[in-house]
Structure formats: C-alpha cells, structure tokens
Design a protein that fits this description.
There is one protein chain. By secondary structure, this protein is α/β, with parallel strands linked by helices. It has helices at about 15-30, 40-50, 65-80, 100-130, 150-175, 200-210, 215-225; strands at about 10, 30-35, 55-60, 85, 130-135, 175-185, 235-240. The chain is about 45% helix and about 15% strand. The protein is globular and about 50 Å long. It starts with 7 loop residues before the first strand and ends in a 6-residue tail after the last strand.
C-alpha cells in the first residue's frame, strides 16, 4: 500500500490480539515490523510467519532500557524507525473501594509509563529526522467514564490528553511527528483475561462474545492512519461494534 511499503514499525504488545494482527496486516502491505512483548515464544512464532520483514525482542514496556533496546534493534536490522505503535495494555477492572492497589499500579505502569517509555525510545530519532508517526491504543473508556473501571479509564484518558498535547508541541517545534490515538470498543482479545473472576466479568465476556469485533478491524484502522500522505494526520480513530452504545 502507498506510504506503508518499506516503513519500519515498532509494535508493543505484539504477542496477541490487536498487536499481533496489526503486525500481520502491516507486513502484508510491505512494512517491516519490529515486535515487542514479554512472551518470546509467541513473538518467535509470529516473526517466523511474517519472514524476513520481521524482527523481535522479548521486552517489557515498563522498562525504559527494554524500549531503547527495541528501537536499537530496528536501527540495527532495518536502518531506521518510522512508526511506533504503542499498543501494550492491561485492564484488571474493579471498584475503587475494593482497594486493588496492585492492579491500579500495574495499569499505571503499563498503560501510561509503558507508552511514555516507548515514546522516549523513538523520539530522539524522530526529532533528528524531522518525521515519524506515533500511534497509541487508548480505548472507548478514554472518551467517557465507566463505573468499575475508574483507574483504567484514567490511564486511557491520559493517553488521549498527552498525545494531543504532544501533537501540538510537534507542530510548534517543526518536527513533523504525526500522532494517532485509536479508541477500540469491544474487541475480542486477551484483555479481558486480566480481569478477576466476578459477575461483572461474566457479563462483559458475554457481551464481547455476542457483539465484539475481531482484532483485524483495529489493525486495518492502524493501516489506514499509517498509509495517509505525510501531510495528513489522522489524530483520532474510534472503532467499535455497531451495537455498542
């Protein structure tokens, strides 16, 4: 696809769901993908499926040194970095009065700090070359408030506000770094596996089973954003089932 072929794309959370399918879709359209996740066996399998246009490294988005190693691998293997897709995330939902503090901190570490670490790893190159594209997975929960998911909503609202502020900074600084925030609705991924068993989880799982979309719809949204001409910035993309309110 025009403006995708040959691009080097870093993808976090690439071992399953949206990240895995996006790697496939982008590679099918000529991109070279550099895959990041903690599960090495899944990354190895995916890279083997894609072939010579894939590289991978087992890494943790909560560690800045791991994200720097990911960016370094892209430079070593393919000579540059064009796009970051910061996709890794968790959603162990619960009511605030349940005081699941460790779950709160995991969401902050992965959904917020993980995005910042990945951005910190690519921004030096993007700034020097005066081009680049940062795509981040937020959520429909990043556009509204959802009871029982307050901290998750907060992390996804952070992504929305931070990336839009950075977009304006990039314009002021003349670095020409594009940004896209993706807001998935109900997508059938492993994200629900991070929620502890409960009546609420059972209801959500049933809804996703009956209404949820496949990860390919988000992969195609990322492809759409990345494929635009360099002077076009698709800043926000909401993608949800037609039956989701």
């Amino acid at each position: 696809m025009k403006n995708v072929e040959g691009k080097v794309v870093l993808i976090t959370g690439a071992s399953s769901g949206i990240g895995r399918e996006t790697a496939r879709v982008l590679a099918q359209n000529g991109a070279r993908v550099v895959l990041s996740a903690r599960r090495a066996d899944r990354l190895r399998e995916l890279a083997g499926e894609i072939g010579e246009n894939a590289a991978w490294i087992a890494s943790d988005v909560t560690r800045l040194e791991d994200m720097r190693a990911l960016a370094a691998l892209a430079q070593e293997r393919f000579g540059r970095v064009d796009v970051l897709f910061a996709n890794a995330g968790v959603m162990p939902g619960s009511g605030m009065t349940e005081l699941k503090v460790s779950d709160w901190m995991a969401m902050v570490d992965i959904n917020i700090k993980g995005v910042l670490n990945a951005m910190a790893a690519v921004l030096p190159a993007f700034t020097a070359q005066k081009r680049g594209h940062i795509v981040v997975t937020s959520s429909m929960a990043g556009t509204k408030s959802v009871p029982g998911n307050a901290v998750y909503c907060g992390t996804k609202h952070f992504v929305r506000a931070m990336l839009d502020s950075f977009r304006m900074e990039s314009i002021q600084e003349g670095t020409h770094i594009r940004t896209t925030t993706i807001y998935p609705g109900a997508i059938r991924t492993e994200l629900l596996n991070t929620i502890a068993p409960s009546e609420t989880k059972t209801r959500v799982e049933e809804f996703y089973k009956n209404v949820g979309l496949e990860p390919s719809v988000i992969a195609n949204a990322v492809l759409y954003a990345v494929s635009q001409p360099d002077n076009v910035d698709i800043s926000d993309l909401g993608v949800r089932p037609s039956r989701e309110s």
